[in-house]
């Protein structure tokens, strides 16, 4: 997991390919804030992002999730979101996806929480447990971007 803020990308120590991706002018915080909610493909299913407005909920009402094929970069565009995080799973192959590359688990716990505000982002690598959309205080609206980066895209990137 990597935590950072979009206004200070160079301080996040991102891998070069992710640094280059998030440095693109059309993917700046301001550019993303101006786009409507929806799915945007950059390189088909290998690299895309989704913009959405959601309601945060009490952490106890949400489930832990992880992915095996995609890295997530979750960036808060407006509002505040709690993100519960946990350890790598010992053997993610023991789980079945509920949706393509979306796994839920009740037997491992995301026990640490990061409170994210506008501009903050977190990078989750495959197998890293997280529970997004946790309320910080009372439930509220949060608008965010979620970048989905296939691990093969990252491995083959010329920006490494």
TrEMBL record:
This entry carries the following GO cellular component terms, namely: cytosol
Pfam families (UniProt xref) = DUF386
Q: Which SUPFAM superfamilies match?
A: Clavaminate synthase-like (SSF51197)
Gene Ontology biological-process entries: single-species biofilm formation
The record ties this protein, via InterPro entries, to: NanQ/TabA/YiaL, NanQ/TabA/YiaL_sf
- For this entry, the protein name equals Biofilm protein TabA
Q: Which organism is it from?
A: Tolumonas osonensis
- Lineage of origin: Bacteria, Pseudomonadati, Pseudomonadota, Gammaproteobacteria, Aeromonadales
